[in-house]
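Intended use. Records like the one below are meant for learning the mapping from a protein sequence to its folded structure. Do not use them to infer anything beyond what is encoded.
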Amino acid sequence: MPELFEALISIFSRAYEIGLTVMTPVPTLLYASCFFLILLAYLKKSHRFGVMLLHFTLVLFFFIIWNHPAFRYFKFNPWHGGYAYVFIMLAVMIYIPIRLVFAFINFWQDYLQPIDRI
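Structure written out for the chain above:
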C-alpha cells in the first residue's frame, strides 16, 4: 500500500511540474479568460451552458497541453504516462476549481441569499 501511495504522489508531482512548464503567458491568459467566461455563462445564462463551456474548455486545454513543445516527449511516447499527466493537470487546474466555485455559487443562491432577504 505505501508503494501505491508513493506512485500516486510521484504522478501528481510530475503532472504539476509539467503543468507549470506548459503554463506560459499565452495559455495563462487563455486560462483566466476561459475561467471568467465559464463563470459568466454559469451566472447569466444557465447551469447547463456553463457546464458545456467547461467541457469545451477541457478539450481546448487538452490540445494546448498535448501540442506544447515541452510535452513533446510524452506526445511521442504516450505509454510513459502522457495521457495520465494531461488528465491530472486538467482535473487539478481546471475541473476541480470550477466545480468548487459552482458548488459555492449554488450554496450561496440556495441557502445564504434567502437568509439575507429575511
